[in-house]
Amino acid sequence: MRTTSSLTGFFALLQLTTAVPHTGNVKRQASQLLDSYDFVIAGGGSSGLTIADRLTEAFPDKNVLVIEYGEVEYARGVYDPPMTIWGGAGNLASGWLLNSTPSPDLNNNTALVMVGKVVGGSSAINGMFFDRGSRFDYDTWDRLQGDQPGPRKKDIDWSWNGVYPFFRKSVTFTPPAEAVASKYNYTWDTSVFENTTPIYASLPPFLWGDHFVARDSWKEMGIWVPQECANGEKEGLCWIPISEHPVTARRSYAGVGHYSDVAAKRPNYHLLVKHQVARVVYPRPNTKSGPPIVEVRPLDGGPLFNISVKNEVVLSTGVFGTPAILQRSGIGPAAFLQSANIPLVLDLPGVGSNLHDHSGPRLSWDYTKPLPFYPLPSDMLNETFAAEAVVAFNQTPARGPYTLAMSNSAIWVSLPNMTITYSTIIDNIRRLAKSSDPSALHLPAAYGGDKTLVEGYRAQLLALADLLANPRAPSLESAFATGNSAAAVLLHPLSRGTARLNLTHPFEPPVLDYRSASNPIDMALHLAHTRYLRRMMYTDTLAGLGAVEAAPGIDAQTDEALVAFIRQNTVQSYMHPCCTVAMLPREKGGVVGTDLKVHGTTGLRVVDMSVLPVLPSAHLSATAYAVAEKAADLIIKEWSKGKGKSKGKGNN
């Protein structure tokens, strides 16, 4: 059992490791490995390290190997010394910076996506915003499962009630000091956190002087201000914890919380770095004969080698890495694999399909009066102020500007609460779902009209229509920390893209075709969001500061003018890609079942953000931990009961 303190005081944490992560049982070459492992986990990111931590703790007699492309690195926060320009992304751990192909419906602009390439994965490089989605998002996940073969819906619950215990388990929240809470009017509810895990979240002891410009404007707009938004009720103006240590204010991420601080010294835990899972190989041409052999590629150019597995393989290399491994393994869309000259092992059209992400344009204003606020990010350019900020950051507990990440405050607003025309949008979604013409669905040509993908998308449309019609389920997010702009983020896009193996460089990240705004209803949603959010620029709060709308601009009043602005200025990825190995029934284009096992296989499971059927109304870090905690619970229960001893058992 975990014995981590509930952390009622800051100083109880001082003995925890927060500097360079302990390297523990790190391996760097094949000769250092065992002949076989009970569990092999591909990917040492948020989900993979969570599962490895839980399995090595629950099964001290079983050996677990994590294979990670990156290295053990210290992961700075988003805004740590020596940076002096707030909002930068430098000094972070290693990552891939990926570009999609052009999106014709957004003026051929591309999506820019950053993915972690380090022990800890994207939790080592993200914006540290640590929120949960609306309860209705997760209820939608569960609704989309229907009655799958194998484990039944009633046995594995992916609704809010089914995942909420794992959200609580996955993080330790520390309330701010009384003086900080009083200064910023922070509110929270400690009952929504279990506080037994060394993944930390806290409310920062510093906000920029103009932070309340947006909050006051949004209150003027009538947006509800709940006490807590991590309880499944997400509609409103929320305070959000950031994933940092409450004493040192250093980034809290999986590489520390689920490896170096707790698991690195366990003798049954091996972490192989600077290696890549090339593919999984079944001993016989029968995917029910698993678990598969894991083929590994050293990044130093050495020969590929195999690792045998006794219990199961867990793919946890993320939204882009996991479908690439499956496709290299001959598991995926038959037509694509044939075109790539990859022998077909298992036809699963959903592998690499269903790609979507949060997107939207950024609105801005100019100030025509001097701002009466202190401090502002520009004050960091003053050498004395910046030096004092460094001193404050290194105090115990840390304080000052460097304790703040990108943001910890945002609004989430439902479609019915922002426009009276919401019912027209909902009706159009339902009408589209029932269309007899598959070409009217605006799906990728790469789908090839596959019936299962079409039916799965229809089911998503109907579920999303109900979600968007719910006045308690957010459609728009906008976060603010300082400055003169705010993003109108679309939380539930209808457009779908693909992630397909790069045939020229098959061991590099796949080719991403986002196809943003390819479904025209997305533009109707963007338009509603933009019209709603621009209202903040005309509140008494901003008007009193001399704010003048800069973008879209006061001349952009017609739908046509606003659509032109959106097409040119939409950010296609707010770094929350998902859903490329979706948890859906196989007959609806799904790749994994409710137990996260790959359909039609034995001994092969996927646990990362690729398994989501649709995006939640949240940044994905907290969800990644919760999904992994639930998956670990499933795996532990299964192998504790010895269910995996029969090689013939697997998903249909």
Question: So what's the CATH class of one domain?
Answer: Alpha Beta
> From the alpha-carbon coordinates, what is the Rg to the nearest angstrom?
24 Å
Shape: globular
User: DSSP strand (E) fraction?
Assistant: 15-25%
Secondary-structure class:
alpha/beta
- List low-pLDDT spans: 1-20, 643-650
- SS elements, strand count: 23
GO molecular function, one term: oxidoreductase activity, acting on CH-OH group of donors
Protein name: Glucose-methanol-choline oxidoreductase N-terminal domain-containing protein
Cofactor: FAD
Family: Belongs to the GMC oxidoreductase family.
Structure report:
The protein has a domain at 21-78 and 121-203 and 242-356 and 576-645: 3-Layer(bba) Sandwich (FAD/NAD(P)-binding domain), CATH 3.50.50. The two termini are 35 Å apart. The strands form 7 sheets. Strands 1, 2, 3, 9, 10, 11, 12 and 23 form an 8-stranded mixed beta sheet that branches. Helix 1 (46-58) packs parallel to helix 15. Helix content is 25%, strand content 16%. With 652 residues, the chain is an alpha/beta fold.
What's the helix and strand layout?
Blueprint: E1 26-27, E2 36-42, H1 46-58, E3 64-68, E4 95-99, E5 112-116, H2 135-145, H3 160-169, E6 172-174, H4 178-184, E7 200-202, H5 211-220, E8 236-239, H6 254-260, E9 269-273, E10 275-281, E11 293-298, E12 305-315, H7 318-328, E13 331-332, H8 334-339, E14 346-347, E15 362-367, H9 383-393, E16 409-414, H10 422-433, H11 451-469, E17 474-479, E18 485-487, E19 489-490, E20 498-500, E21 511-513, H12 520-533, H13 540-543, E22 547-551, H14 559-569, E23 604-606, H15 621-640
Parallel strand pairs: 1-9, 2-3, 2-12, 3-9, 6-7, 12-23, 13-14
Antiparallel strand pairs: 4-5, 8-16, 10-11, 11-12, 15-18, 15-22, 16-17, 17-19, 20-21
